[in-house]
Structures are given as structure tokens and as C-alpha cells.
Fold these 2 entries.
Entry 1:
Amino acid sequence: MGEIESRFAEIIWQNQPISTSALVRLSEQTLGWKRTTTYTVLKRLCEKGIFQMRESTVTSLVSREEFYALQSEKFVRETFGGSLPSFLTAFAARKKLTAEEIEAIRRFIDSFGEGDAE
């Protein structure tokens, strides 16, 4: 999903369930879109299985958190061959991690290790 579609999706996630007329108004105010543009992008996102429109009401089929988790997994799979360590190595090489970030990553990793030593 591109930046514009992401901004549109955020409008839906923040306001759902939302009527199509309210979505058209918010899209016009926030994105400067015409009614036809709103319906075109909505149709595309519905076809991708992210949202649904029933009886002029739009709701999500995938939560914001789940969508971005899936996008992250796809990025790591396609860009780093699915290797999370390779992704973290590349990320840390460009951005110095703070002590707090390092500790949070350690706690996260440790939480998956508990109970696995049996």
C-alpha cells in the first residue's frame, strides 16, 4: 500500500464503522479527494481484502496492527530472505540503537526463550 492509500486507510481505521458518505466528506477534507477518487481507492482496498463495504458502511477486515505486521513480515521475507537477524543487522548499521532500545529487544527475545529449554 502506498503513502496515499495508507493515509486513506488510517481514516477508515480511526473512524470505523464509517458510512460511505462520511468517508467521502473526510477524504475531501483530509486528502482533497473527489467522491470518485474515494470510491476508486476504497474499491481497490476492498479487493485486497483490507476493508469491506456493506450497506454503505465501511469496516476493516484486517486491523491496522495486523496489516502492518503482515507488511513487515513481507518486507523481511522479500528483502532479507526472511532472516530477522539480517534485517536487524542492516537496521542497526544505519541507526545507532539506544540503550533502551537494546534492552527492549533483549526482553523481547528473552520472552520467546522462556520455556523452550525443556
Entry 2:
Amino acid sequence: MRRRALVVVVVVSVVVSGYFIAMIPGCMPTVKMHGRGEPFSWDQNAYWKTLETQFVLRRQEGCEQAAALVSKQLGDANEQMTQMASMNSMPDADAFESLEKILFNTAVIMGACRSAMRQHGSAFWQFRNEIKAVSSKWDVQAPRGRKALYRLLYGTRMALEQAMLVSDVYPVYSPVKKVSRHSVPFAEVHGVHIQSGDLLLSRGTAPTSAFIARGNDYPGNFSHVALVHVGERGKVSIIESHIEGGVAVTDVDGYLKDKKFRILVLRLRADVPEVLKDSTLPHKAAEAALRRAVSGHTPYDFEMDYQNSDALFCSEVASSVYAEQGVTLWHVLSSISNPVVVRWMRDFGVRYFMTQAPSDLEYDPQLEIIYEWRSQSGLIHDTVDNAVTDAMIELGSPHRSLPYSVWMLPVARLLKLYSAFQNVLGKVGPVPEGMNATAALRNRAFQSRHRAVQKRVLQDVERFKSEHDYFPPYWRLVEIAKSAL
């Protein structure tokens, strides 16, 4: 009996000791490449409040003159765009400010008048493509050019989507049918003309997707990049890299099954010098990506090292194969320099903070907008998630890591061992390949906190709508999110 009791005591001691040893936190990753940028800030809260006041007054006036006023404003914007397009260099600051204010004021009127929104809402998409075309003459690598392009493209998006939310009208963008270059295979996908080599930007529904979209120095709306391959017989394949299993190939249904708030289709412009020399270039890039994806397993790159091809995060799937064809996507690298964001991304395993953020691809002048989709409920949740993320970052401390339950660390490490065994078998485990147990727990804790705040914000949004009869503008959403934290 004494011997059996001693054995039990020894076993229990070993298990308890092992449990507590497994609670020892891992080391923080060393930062390999610091972000050398500066976080963009609008710093226009007074202007946002003025626009909201104008919106309330416009709603009280009714729609009698709204349509005519919107037509005039859009005419003024077209005239401003024509002047900018005629210049061989970057316009002065007054031209940007004038166009920006015209479009924001137009969005206010459309938000206040549903009929004007239905009639003219799609015009904003045309402006965004024209801005991208004109910006091909600008030096977007210079801070002034980059900020101007960002303000116009992200600003018009923000203005239009705020008008959608407050008017509760969601105009459908009818894409222009693009004539395919004969040497590039194409297909019709849900009524959209897709060509081999097209890029798909999307926004996932997970809180970490919002963090990816908002965390870089130029906050945006996208968290994922995928590359389209169209075979000679019209078969469409989507090549992408997910944190769960690395690089993979799926079909359209598989791509759409993974829930998304929005999708943007981008295409390399036909007048890009490399494409003028070889019109098959986009298809060649897609072919290379497909060959690599099916030739063997490529893990997900949690470090976000865009120069390492042994592991790939989503942006690298596209940028690496286009680079092989002589086309540089992300002419200006994305910088992540907010100390709170850097701290939290280190918690997730990121080591490189000069990289290729998905959202920044939207502002590449080499790419034209082919199609954009978002759902009504998706836009609401996307906007709220952005506000919650911005509030968390603003109120976060650069000296504190993301919290997690240290008591769960031994369990997480066991799950990591199990996941590693699953990865050897070619399967996906509960802890993503390349992510350690501590990072997985921090990821889980971040998402839990984000969802809890999001739930409270959505309740406050409903209260605001019942009191004011419109969806709160973004600056108010951020304030609501701060109060909910």
C-alpha cells in the first residue's frame, strides 16, 4: 500500500510539475524590420461634426431640390477631374481639397435623400477609377502623393458607405464589361467578367481581419488577397494563403463559402509597360502561382516577411509571381509603426513591419477597379468592427501585451502538439501551423474581447437609430466603441 501510494504521489507530482512548467510563457519574437512610416490621421473631427449637422438639415429640407443639386455637384467634380487629368504632374493641394469637399458634400446630400442615392450612388465608383487612372502620373512613392491618393480613394469610399448606412439605400455597382485581351483566358462569374491574373481583395468576418485592415499606417477595409487563375476551358481557380493551412487552391464556391463582408476585383492596367510588351503577363503570373500551389505544401508566413518565399502570407501569393514577371505590386511598402499595433502584432508572431498589407493594394495606380461587392449586413458589421478596432488601438498601451489565461497555456501546448501531428498528415489542427500556443491564446482572447465590445456597440447603435432615425456616422461609432471598452 505504501509503495502504491508513493507511486501515486510521484505521478501526481510529475503531472503537476509538468503542468506548471508548461505555464512558462514563450519568448517574444524579435522585430526584424521596423515600420519607418507615420500613421495617417485625418484630424478632422470638427469637419465630420459639421457634415453630420448638414445631413440633419438636408433631411429636414426634403428631396425636392436634392437630385438637381447632386447633379450639379457631380458636374463640378467631373470638371475638377478633367483639369487634374490634363496635368502632367501632381496637382496642388487646393485641387485635392476642392475635389474631396465636393464629393463629401455630395455624399451628405445623397445620404439625406434616398432617391438621389438610388440615382447617383454608382457615380462614386466611376470617380474612384478615374482617380486611379489619373494617379498613374503622380509620384505615389513620395509622402505627398501617397497621402493625396489615399485621401481621395479611401475618402470617397468612406463618404459613399456612410451615405449608404444613413440612407439605408445600397446601390449596386454595375461593372463595365471589360473586353478580354485575347491571349488572357477569362470567365463569367456571377455576372462579373474575370480574367486570369485578376486580384481579389476581401474582408473576413473575424475580429483579426478588422485588425489586419486597420493596423497599418494607412487604415483600410481589406484583410486578404487572392489571385485568380482561369484555365483555357474557363475553369476558375482561386490561389490564396490562409493562416490555418498555408497556400491552397479552391474554386469559386469554396472561395465564397469562406464568409466575407466585401470583395473587390482589381486588374493590372493594359497600359502598364510590362503588359504592353506582353499581354499574357497576368496569365503567366497566375500560372506560376498555380504550379507552386499544387507542387507541394507552402506554410503561412506569420512573420510577414515578404522577401521569404519558403512561407507565404496572402499578399505574397500575388506579389511574388508578379515580381517574377517584372511587375512590382506595392511600389511603396506598407508600414506598421503605431506602437500599440506593433506590440499586438508581435504577440501574434509578426516580426516584419515594413511589409505588404492587403488594404494598400487598393491604392496601386497600376491596378484598375473591375467590380466591388458588399452586402447590407456585411457593411454594417464591417463598419462597426472597424470602429471597435480603432477604439481598441487608440486606448491600448504599447507597454502591455495582449492578455491571455496562463492557466490555459499547458492545454494550448498539448493542442499545438496535436496540431503539429495533423500538419504532418496534411491536415489542419486547432492551432494554425506557424503559430505557437501563446500566440494562439492571445489571438483567442483578442477575438473574444472584440466580439464582446462589438455586441455592446451594436446595441448602442440600435438605441442611437431609434433616437435619431439614422445610422451613426463613423466618428460617433468610434466614440461609442470607446465607451463600451
